[in-house]
Amino acid sequence: MSGMKSLAKDTAIYGLSSILGRFLNWCFVFLYINVLKTTAEYGIVTNLYAYMALLLILLTYGMETGFFRFANDREEKDPLKVYTTGLISLATSSTLFFVAVWVFRAPLAGILGYPEHTDYVWMMALIIAMDAFSALPFAYLRYQKRPVRFAVIKLLSIFLNIVFNLFFILLCPWLYKIHPEWISWFFNPDFLVGYILVSNVISSGAILLVLVPEIFGIHYRFDARVLKRMLRYSFPLLILGIAGIMNQTFDKMFYPVLASGRPDAMSELGIYGAVYKIAIVMVMFTQAFRFAYEPFIFSKNREKGEGNKQAYSDAMKYFIIFGLLIFLGVMFYLDIVKYFMPPAYYVGLAVVPIVMLADLFFGIFFNLSLWYKLTDRTQWGAWFSLFGFVITAVMNIAFVPRFGYMACAWAAFVCYLCMMVASYFIGQRIYPIRYDLRSAFVYTLLALVLYAAGMLIPIDNIVLRILFRTILLAVFIVYIIRKDMPLREIPVIKNFLK
User: Fold this and answer.
1) For the residues of 78-115, what is the DSSP string, one character each?
2) Long-range contacts of 202-205 (CB under 8 A, 24+ apart)
3) What is the Cα–Cα distance from 259 to 251, expressed in whole angstroms?
4) Nearest of 382, 91, 381 to residue 227 by alpha carbon
5) CA 104, CA 468: separation in Å to the nearest integer?
């Protein structure tokens, strides 16, 4: 029991940095779209970071998981040898990657669509190389059970990124207007996209310096046999990682190519990338749930009887309830969010409900994934990811040229819906769980009816419109309380109702 408590505590510490990072990334979207001069500039940011997400998966090639696997392997008597072998491998591949990109930066910039900005390309490569290399020292901290140092370093990275973004994106343009002579020697007001990358380079470089004890304070040993075992083990994980990240980034990477026949593809990508980030609230909820859920299911699996399956069913029900609550909350107050966006982005807000429901489907899919994790059939995770990627790719290729970024949103919706449905039916044959489908259907129907009422009933006055939607949201909350969460059963609140 104490072990599970320790696991839960460590999970919370690890999760803090991840969730906080996502939240601040969400906040910075509004900074970028208000400061950057055109929607096309944010399109470049969206495009670059989509490529970075994929390349980071390629450059780490499952080495983190491979390290955990063989550092705890009985055949390998020296975990430090496993670590240093992996570290040498990552250092070599990351260095070669950066050198190759530096040499071919000009043609690569042309291929990506901004030939005049080779600096974007080499800075992107430098960030990827540093982050890929630092992945294993962070894994080593987890192996040593040092979650506090792990989280502190991650939070430091976030803090530095914030500080330098605010410096280059807000402070410097303001100073340039009033006293250009102070900063003109290093600041170019037309290089704001570049300064987003510069901020990232500085924060990633600083983190490498902080990780010096984990990089240089050790005795290095390289074992080709160990590396071969690690690579053989990690390759399937690499394929899974590529398929998973392609589901998320395919549209943002290839949109300029797929939409090349449209009037302004990069501007459309900027709009789509910005409004897509609004839905990250659902992703943060799913992420927070994951950190608690995985330890929960594996601890429950140790218990005998059918009670554990009932717990899985209850967890799914409450995930759906709170997921739908978040969906309604974001959609009902989207008019307030608009005030933080330039009017040029308003046209893209139509994708928000589609993408949010897509992310909800993905969260449900994650919940359903317990059947192949508990039965050691993890290869099904790879098959589902590949299945989803095929749907994403086909729909984007077929419909983006005609329908633009709306096709991207619907592709994500259909992809995660199909993955969710497929996992449910296959899982019920292998590891049957009696999920409360009736409750899920009723809550979903109620949420959709309230959403339709809030969106379709015309109320011109924004204050009255927000008030009306707040009442609708309250109806959903009251139903939750009356049906599944009576106030007298909630630990803190029940003390006031005695």
Assistant:
1) -HHHHHHHHHHHHHHHHHHHHHHHHHTHHHHHHHHT-T
2) 202/160, 202/164, 203/157, 203/158, 203/160, 203/161, 203/164, 204/126, 204/127, 204/130, 204/131, 204/134, 204/157, 205/130
3) 10
4) 91
5) 57
Structure-model confidence comparison of residues 29 and 23, the more confident one = 29
Tell me the mean pLDDT in the region 96-112: 94
- For 27, 290, 381, 426, the CA distances from 319, given in Å and listed in that order, are 24, 11, 20, 21
- Asked if 184 and 175 touch (Cβ cutoff 8 Å), the reply is no
54 contacts 245 by C-beta, under 8 angstroms: yes
**Angle of the 39-60 helix axis to the 224-258 helix axis, nearest 10:** 160
Q: Give yes or no for a contact between 367 and 294, defined as CB atoms under 8 angstroms apart.
A: no
Give the residue from 175, 217, 195, 172 showing the smallest Cα distance to 28.
195
Angstrom distances, CA of residue 47 to CA of 227, 340, 486: 33, 22, 46
Question: In Å, what is the CA distance from 6 to each residue of 20, 107, 139, 145, 289?
Answer: 21, 51, 18, 10, 17
Q: What is the pLDDT of residues 201-260, one digit of tens each?
A: 999 999 999 999 988 888 888 888 888 988 888 887 787 788 888 888 899 999 998 998
Q: Which residues contact 292 (CB under 8 A, 6 or more apart)?
A: 8, 11
SS3 sequence of the chain: CHHHHHHHHHHHHHHHHHHHHHHHHHHHHHHHHHHCCCHHHHHHHHHHHHHHHHHHHHHHCCHHHHHHHHHCCCCCCCHHHHHHHHHHHHHHHHHHHHHHHHHCHHHHHHHHCCCCCHHHHHHHHHHHHHHHHHHHHHHHHHHCCCHHHHHHHHHHHHHHHHHHHHHHHHHHHHHHHHCHHHHCCCCCCCCHHHHHHHHHHHHHHHHHHHCHHHHHCCCCCCCHHHHHHHHHHHHHHHHHHHHHHHHHHHHHHHHHHHCCCCCCHHHHHHHHHHHHHHHHHHHHHHHHHHHHHHHHHHHHHCCCCCHHHHHHHHHHHHHHHHHHHHHHHHHHCHHHHHCCCCHHHHHHHHHHHHHHHHHHHHHHHHHHCHHHHHCCCCHHHHHHHHHHHHHHHHHHHHHHHHHCHHHHHHHHHHHHHHHHHHHHHHHHHHCCCCCCHHHHHHHHHHHHHHHHHHHHCCCCCHHHHHHHHHHHHHHHHHHHHHHCCCHHHCCCHHHHCC
Q: What is the pLDDT of residues 32-46, one digit of tens each?
A: 998 888 898 999 999
Q: How confident is the model at residue 73 (pLDDT cuts 50, 70, 90)?
A: low
Q: What is d(CA 336, CA 435) in angstroms, rounded to the nearest whole number?
A: 36
pTM assigned to the model: 0.83
* Residues near 431 by beta carbon (within 8 Å), at least 6 away in sequence: 370, 371, 372, 374, 375
